[in-house]
Amino acid sequence: MSEPKIERLRRRERELEAEVARLRGGGTSPQAGHYEAVFDSAVDFAIITSDRDGRVTSWNPGAERILGWSAAEMLGLPTGTFFTPEDRAVGQPASEMRRAAEAGRASDERWHLRKDGSRLWASGELMPLRGRGGSDLGFLKILRDRTESTAREGETRRVRDELQVVTDVLPVLISFIDQLSQLQSCSPDRLGGRSRCFDRVIMS
């Protein structure tokens, strides 16, 4: 790694450390303690921060539970690690950061990747992190697993589609039952009478 790049990384690390120290208030701020408690206890949400290059700088217990990687494993890795190969191939992680930087946030709802290679459907928000003077510190991503609810929605759509098929063929089915009942009501005593019954059913 070149010296200029190492120096840039060190400078960004110092900026992030300064921002963390400010939020924590030297360990005495109740507000900072509240933020830290929220970060650690929000196990239903993956809360992830990254630097300006998209490399993970913090990874909460919710991210560990939802995505499978521990904080120790993910720190320093690109956030694209938990994007699908097809999304990485088209530059989706960088595109999302660009949209967040330009618009103040970027929403997404797509497949993501777990450590074990399985996929989850998640909705997320990516927002830029700003320092005290408005300096760009990186990004904050909040992600929620919606795999089960999406599967339930898919099942609901499937049942609804099946009901629609039944509804569509119902008039034909009713007509068939009506014709069948007319045939059953015909007296088979005389061939001519039976013939007239068939004629009546066919013409109806």
UniProtKB/TrEMBL annotation:
Cross-referenced InterPro entries: Biofilm_reg_signaling (IPR052155), PAS (IPR000014), PAS-assoc_C (IPR000700), PAS-like_dom_sf (IPR035965), PAS_fold (IPR013767)
Residue span(s) of domain PAC: 106-158
GO-annotated biological processes: regulation of DNA-templated transcription
Domain PAS: 31-104
PANTHER family, sorted: BIOFILM ARCHITECTURE MAINTENANCE PROTEIN MBAA, DIGUANYLATE CYCLASE DGCP
Protein name: PAS domain S-box protein
Source organism (scientific name): Methylobacterium tardum
